[in-house]
Design goal:
Blueprint (H helix, E strand, L loop, with lengths): L2 H23 L9 E2 L8 E4 L8 H4 L10 H8 L1 H16 L2 H13 L7 E4 L8 H18 L2 E6 L12 E5 L9 E6 L1 H5 L7 E3 L18 E5 L2
Parallel strand pairs: 2-3, 3-4, 4-5, 5-6, 6-8, 7-8
Antiparallel strand pairs: 1-2
């Protein structure tokens, strides 16, 4: 068996292992519960969407600063499988036990195409409530303590308290979010293109393969990104 065939065989075996565990927890769902990166984020990051963009709590509360050009909402409109995945997972994550969530995540991590180094919460959507913040800090702590996998997120939930979510690196989409490591602000292209790096300011390169600024709490300034 050639090297390429071996890799394909291993990938299929890993998918089968995930499938067995997922079917015990999500019996009627045939899709991929969690993603390994995307065009911007490396495959060493496991992406977990707590809600769909369609039912984004921040948008519903009028807190989202990018509601008119939300990339995730556009993807859900174009790709119906992506929308269905997010809707299924938001329902399941709202009621699943912490133990079951960890079990499913471990299946994806143990059988990932490459070693998982980070967990990204909410490529789409946002935290539902304070209880979900508490639950996911426990999950983040588990993966840090057992595997040294870091967890990070972006949120506009200024009405929630992240000060005790010390295992989640929080990038606040609004200023003044309690417990956020910093503010992450989207600006129009012309504004971004005319900005110059300075103390307390970082310009998002739009590619997480060679930048980890959002993953660490060592930078407490403002990260600016171009609007999608």
């Amino acid at each position: 068996m050639c090297q390429r065939d071996t890799k394909v065989h291993l990938a299929r075996n890993n998918e089968k292992k995930i499938w067995v565990i997922q079917q015990n927890l999500l019996k009627d769902f045939n899709g991929q519960a969690f993603a390994y990166g995307n065009t911007k984020i490396p495959r060493s990051t496991l992406i977990v969407n707590l809600t769909s963009a369609q039912h984004c709590p921040s948008k519903a509360k009028g807190l989202c600063q990018v509601a008119d050009f939300c990339y995730a909402k556009r993807c859900e409109r174009i790709y119906k499988d992506y929308l269905n995945k997010n809707l299924v997972m938001e329902r399941w994550l709202a009621t699943a036990s912490t133990k079951d969530i960890i079990t499913l995540m471990e299946a994806y991590i143990d059988n990932a195409p490459e070693q998982i180094r980070y967990i990204r919460l909410d490529e789409a959507g946002d935290f539902r409530d304070q209880n979900q913040v508490i639950q996911w800090n426990k999950i983040a702590r588990y993966f840090w303590d057992t595997r040294q996998i870091g967890t990070y997120t972006y949120t506009a939930r200024i009405d929630l308290d992240f000060s005790k979510a010390n295992y989640i690196c929080v990038n606040g989409s609004l200023p003044g979010i309690e417990g956020a490591a910093r503010e992450y602000k989207c600006v129009p292209h012309d504004v971004y293109d005319n900005m110059t790096p300075q103390n307390g300011v970082h310009l998002c390169p739009g590619d997480c393969h060679n930048c980890n600024m959002c993953f660490t709490d060592k930078f407490s300034g403002i990260i600016y990104c171009r609007k999608h």
